[in-house]
Amino acid sequence: MTDQTAEPLSGRPFRDEPTEVLETALTLVGADAQHYARTGPKKQEDALHTIADHLLTELQHRGDL
Vertex 52, ends 4 and 22: CA angle to 5°? Predict the structure, then answer.
């Protein structure tokens, strides 16, 4: 994936990524979010949910969901 750490997520930050990369990232982010939901911290869980929302939005925009 491209480096998204320089600025906050806005618009379609994952538009240049292949669909397969987005699907894999969504799976991994979901697993990490579940882990942090059980163990904390809440801030980390919230950040992962935000990333997952962006991944889902991009996949929906492409018609892949």
Answer: 70
Task: Please state, in angstroms and as integers, the Cα–Cα distance from residue 51 to each residue in 16, 41, 46, following that order.
Answer: 15, 16, 9
Q: Are 44 and 34 in contact (CB under 8 A)?
A: no
pTM, two decimals, is 0.77
Split at pLDDT 50, 70, 90, the class of 4 is: very low
Q: Is the pLDDT of residue 21 over 80?
A: yes
d(Cα 48, Cα 33) in Å, to the nearest integer?
Answer: 6
